[in-house]
UniProtKB/TrEMBL annotation:
<keyword id="KW-0503">Monooxygenase</keyword>
<keyword id="KW-0560">Oxidoreductase</keyword>
<comment type="similarity">
    <text>Belongs to the cytochrome P450 family.</text>
</comment>
<dbReference type="GO" id="GO:0020037">
    <property type="term" value="F:heme binding"/>
</dbReference>
<keyword id="KW-0732">Signal</keyword>
<keyword id="KW-0349">Heme</keyword>
<keyword id="KW-0256">Endoplasmic reticulum</keyword>
<dbReference type="InterPro" id="IPR017972">
    <property type="entry name" value="Cyt_P450_CS"/>
</dbReference>
<keyword id="KW-0408">Iron</keyword>
<feature type="binding site" description="axial binding residue">
    <location>
        <position position="440"/>
    </location>
    <ligand>
        <name>heme</name>
    </ligand>
</feature>
<dbReference type="InterPro" id="IPR036396">
    <property type="entry name" value="Cyt_P450_sf"/>
</dbReference>
<keyword id="KW-0479">Metal-binding</keyword>
<dbReference type="GO" id="GO:0005789">
    <property type="term" value="C:endoplasmic reticulum membrane"/>
</dbReference>
<protein>
    <submittedName>
        <fullName>Probable cytochrome P450 4d14</fullName>
    </submittedName>
</protein>
<dbReference type="GO" id="GO:0005506">
    <property type="term" value="F:iron ion binding"/>
</dbReference>
<keyword id="KW-0492">Microsome</keyword>
<dbReference type="InterPro" id="IPR002401">
    <property type="entry name" value="Cyt_P450_E_grp-I"/>
</dbReference>
Amino acid sequence: DYLYRRRQNGFFEKAGIRGPRTIPILGNGHNLIRESPKTVFDLQQRLINDFGKNIRIWVLHESGFMTADARMMEAILSSQQVITKDSLYDMLQSWLGTGLLLSTGKKWHTRRKIITPTFHFKILEQFVEVFDQQSAVMAEQLYDRADGKTVVNLFPATCLAALDIIAETAMGVKINAQRQPNFPYVQSVNIVSSITAERFMNPIQRLDGWMRVFFPRVYRKLHENIKSMHDFTDGVIEERREALQKSIADGTHQASQSNDDADVGSKRRMALLDVLLQSTVGGEPLSNEDIREEVDTFMFEGHDTTTSGISFTLYLIARHPQVQAQLFQEIREVIGDDKSRPVGMRELNELKYLECVIKESLRLYPPVPMIGRRVTQDVTLDGKLIPANTNIILLTYHALRDPDYFPEPEKFIPERFSAERKGEINPFAYTPFSAGPRNCIGQKFAMLEMKSTVSKILRHFELLPLGEEVQPQMNLILRSSTGINAGLKKRVY
Ligand code: HEM
């Protein structure tokens, strides 16, 4: 242990990477003990102020390297070698298996190749209808609180809408989370997400073995709910595989779309799952288990993140009336004055200012505020030799507020992303969706969903700056300990 520590420190010293003083056994553990999901960003900022954008840190016996430096982030994120996730991600494994988010090496390469076409433009185009319908339900559900004075925490309502959207697009099933929030699958997703978020910040709960011993009730609850989600996903996969085989057998199968008997009158959409059912690796179809880990990964990665993105965007709009006015004008010009008119791909693509607003919101409040990697071999990154067995944390949240790349970083200025200023944004300083080979595969999906939902809410309501300000908190994804609040006033036009 001593030799390992000396070796690692030698590398960091040579690379000019400094960090807080360590003590025996705990390393910098004592610096972290009093930190919480609420204070973690402040702690990181203090470390950046004290040691610069590249920081060495020891958590117990493991060496860590944190960076908020866009050049270093470029080196890490573009590397084909540094693609393994750090050990914190292991907590997600009992739910997500080694789906795309968690897998590494050959498995990740193969899966990424198969799954990339799943997010093809043609597939996304069909999903726009789901985005529109489910965000209409969200608007409808908010009407009774839209009296201009009630404070509404936007997060829970958005979360149910995002769950409806991801279930229908990833699995092809309507779970009606917004109308029936007690549906068992919805409850399980929420329970598992919140227990995992809690574990993320609590070192004792992090290790499975420790959690089982010290928090047996929570441990049992976690695993019961994971099982219930797996059973649900398994059922859906089996059903859709049978339907696919039947349609092939009776000659009604079409590669992209077919008619759905159950959903009379409407064309049946391909779900992401259907594309996976038709994929092969070396001529072999994926097994149900292979598919389940990918579908579960979409369900996880594809709802909490967009919930965070949509709610923080609505919050910022509520607090910037001029932005709201300009946005509303654009929406009326592109979509018109009929509030019930569905919004298609063409309109979403034309909402350019809205895109700037969302991008700027993701800059200030990135749903994924940190990204982790683990280097398994000594590797040179941006001219610095980083030793094997180091956990790397990319401090996205801070990189996105770096004044060297974003002048007046604390200000909400959507125009930073306008077409005229294209080229001014460094893609490795702006990484809400990560970058490089392991970037977010659902990025286009997410942008369309966010545009659809935000524009729908703005067509129905004026957003008011009511309620407490947000207090960003790292709970797996970015949340706010005070809620993400706004008031709503029905629009009459
Ligand atoms: C605003 C919404 C979203 C944000 C900010 C976001 C952000 C990210 C980030 C930062 C990563 C890299 C994570 C890492 O390296 O640890 C990632 C990966 C991923 N995202 Fe997203 N995401 C969003 C929405 C979605 C959606 C809607 C889906 C699916 C429908 C999705 C599916 C995935 C998957 C499967 C990966 C793993 C990709 C790989 O490792 O090859 N994401 N996302």
